[in-house]
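Q: I have 67 residues here and want to know how they pack in 3D. Can you give me a structure?
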Amino acid sequence: MVWKVSNTMEIDFGRDTGYGFNITDESGRPLASFVYKTQKEAIAASIHARSLIENAVSVIGAPPDTD
């Protein structure tokens, strides 16, 4: 499975707006979403997320719930 980090984007959640990004699979399906109060925080976190997965020889996610 190839994981990717999306671009940061403005995200509305409830009554608030934040900035965030997704970690996606090879088809673009979100596997995890992260939201921060500021765009600067979201960009910094996405850079770290990219560095975590870009050179990894294996990334194993938890299987989805089947409930």
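Q: Anything worth noting?
A: Residues 3 and 25 are 5 Å apart (CA to CA). The helical segments are 39-54.
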